[in-house]
Each structure stands twice: as C-alpha cells, then as structure tokens.
Amino acid sequence: xxxxxxxxxxxxxxxxxxxxxxxxxxxxxxxxxxxxxxxxxxxxxxxxxxxxxxxxxxxxxxxxxxxxxxxxxxxxxxxxxxxxxxxxxxxxxxxxxxxxxxxxxxxxxxxxxxxxxxxxxxxxxxxxxxxxxxxxxxxxxxxxxxxxxxxxxxxxxxxxxxxxxx
Length: 166
What we know:
This protein is mainly alpha-helical. About 55% of the residues lie in helices and about 0% in strands.
C-alpha cells in the first residue's frame, strides 16, 4: 500500500515551523514571504503541487530543512523536483540556475511568484538604496533569463498537469 502524501496544509505547517526563527532582509518574519509566494502561485493558476513547492522553495537553500529531509519526505516526486530546481547551488551561475528551472515542469511558475514578491516595490522600499538597486537588477536579470520580462513568458509558466490553467 502506498504511503499517503503530505497534504498542502501539512507542508505549510512544516515550512512555517522550519522557517519560524528566520527573517527577511527587511526584518519581517520569513514565513510572510513563503505565504506570499504560495498565494502568488495560486493566483497565477498553479496547482497544489506547485503551491507545496512554493512553501518549500527556500527550505534547502536557507538550511531550514535538509536535502535528506526532502528526499525522504512523503511528497510527490514532481514537488521535490520543483524545490530542487529553484534551489540555488553554491557557485552556480545564473544561466545554469535558470536553465534548470526552465527544464523542470512546474518550477517556472514557482520562481515567477518568488520573483514577483521579492521585487515588490513596497518590500524593496524599506531596504538601503544600494541593496535595493542591486536586488532590483538581479531580479530583472533572472526574469530576463527565464523569459518573464514581457509577453506571455515560456509555455511552462502554468501547471500543465492542471488543464484548467493551461
């Protein structure tokens, strides 16, 4: 008998607990970012697997959860692949990073929602000017490499497994 997967609510609770002591660059609870990215995925037509990946999108990169935890978690393989796709690796250049996102079904929408929240003018406004400028340029570069800087973007933007959004 197959092991049941974690529900979206369970994934959210795990992510909230794992990141509970972390704050963003503006000193806000990091879980606010995770919630905004998950909501960004939802409003862009993403499915539950993409929303689960959104809740976990920074967990490995930030050290909130381990790669071993992800490997052993009762999650669909597609969720694990999306999380790994959006996880930056030490020393990795942006072309390799964005190429992996584009090559992983469902990951682009997660990254698009992440970039949208990261680049929110209200979030950026509270940062030091130099940091704000650096991050704005970085986010624009990533959006460009992902094809998100105009038009409809790449075809994998939405959840191809969910015909209602395709």
